[in-house]
Design a protein that fits this description.
The complex is a heterodimer of chains A (169) and B (129). With 169 residues, chain A is an all-alpha fold. Chain A has a domain at 37-127. Helix content of chain A is 69%, strand content 0%. In chain B, strands 2-1-3-4-5 form a five-stranded parallel beta sheet, with helices on both faces. Chain B has five helices and five strands. With 129 residues, chain B is an alpha/beta fold. In chain B, helix 2 runs parallel beside helix 3. Chain B has one domain (5-124): 3-Layer(aba) Sandwich (Rossmann fold). The chains are: A mainly alpha (169), B alpha/beta (129). Chain A binds chain B through residues 59, 62-63, 66, 69-70, 73, 145, 148-153, 157-161, 163-164, 167-168, and chain B through 18, 21-22, 25, 29, 60-61, 66, 68-69, 90-99, 101, 107-111, 113, 117, 124.
């Protein structure tokens, strides 16, 4: 058995640098395994396209339904063709309501992408460790009127029309 | 205000064309026909300065000028300050309603709403029609 060679400062520094380099290579491999480019270019881009289609479909359906409602409400009930006109426009409304099924399916796909993004973020958080994760303090940094713009509230956060009316009494 | 309330001139403001159409149809349903549209606060102000209106019904969340900014601008303008203003919005938190009320809104309708709610709020702002 060969006697152990005592390492000098240069050897210790070399080992440290080598270990650091290996850690960096490992981290890059693990980050690469998360496939961020695939997530960005395929999943997220696809989800954005799905969202765009949802907006278009709901707008198209709303317009079709309103077109039919306007035609029926402005029609003369004493006209001979009134019954057929109502029947025809009711059919158009039923057809337009198919959007609900299609948008439901598109929303499911978007939710799958969001879950995937969530999983990847969790993996990244695990990889980096708690020392690189600055906790969210939950403070809304917007100020003034801007801070009031939140869009539709969740059911348990919103107040009802009756509650709103009470504020005007 | 116009003698026959159903002849009153109403400006509806919303950046979502479908919602403009819905509000117009609901107003038609309760008897109002003299309705103009604007797609944001800036175009609404242009309309308000070029034509006399009896009522504004406005969304809140719009670019480049929000409904709240439009309301504050209207209340700060001596020629428009008394113009009845109803906010119709999806912003449904207490702080929103309080902020709108402090800015001088006459009533507040939360989306989605129906013709009965619109009629009731119109009545509370302009009286029976």
């Amino acid at each position: 058995m060969e006697p152990a060679v005592k390492k000098g400062p240069a050897d210790i520094l070399y080992d440290e640098v080598w270990e650091l380099a290996r850690t960096i290579v490992d981290a890059r491999k693990q980050i690469g395994a998360l496939r961020p480019s695939k997530l960005k270019t395929k999943n997220v881009s696809a989800a954005l396209l799905e969202m765009d289609e949802i907006v278009k479909a709901t707008e198209e359906a709303s317009n079709t339904i309103m077109d039919s409602a306007e035609i029926m409400s402005s029609a003369d009930a004493s006209d001979a063709g009134y019954s057929a006109l109502v029947q025809e426009n009711c059919s158009k409304i039923f057809e337009a309501c198919v959007f609900q099924d299609l948008t439901g399916q598109r929303i499911s796909k978007v939710m799958t992408t969001l879950e995937l993004v969530d999983t990847h973020l969790q993996d990244l958080q695990d990889l980096l460790g708690p020392e690189f994760d600055e906790p969210d303090d939950g403070v809304d940094e917007r100020e003034g009127d801007e801070a009031l713009l939140n869009g539709p509230a969740l059911t348990d956060e919103a107040i009802s029309q009756d509650d709103i009316d009470a504020l005007f009494d | 205000m116009t003698a026959n309330k159903k002849d009153m001139s109403i400006l509806i403001v919303d950046d979502y064309k479908t919602m403009l159409r819905i509000i117009r149809n609901l107003l038609n349903e309760v008897g109002f026909k003299n309705i103009d549209e604007a797609i944001d606060g800036v175009t609404a102000l242009d309309s308000l300065r070029s034509k006399k209106y009896d009522l504004i019904i406005s969304d809140w969340n719009m670019e480049p000028m929000t409904g709240l900014e439009l309301l504050k601008t209207v209340r700060a303008d001596a020629t428009l300050t008394k113009l009845p203003f109803i906010m119709v919005t999806a912003e449904s938190k207490t702080e929103n309603v309080v902020a709108a009320k402090q800015a001088g809104v006459n009533n507040y309708i939360v989306k989605p709403f129906n013709a009965a709610t619109l009629r009731s709020k119109l009545t509370s702002v302009i009286g029976e029609f």
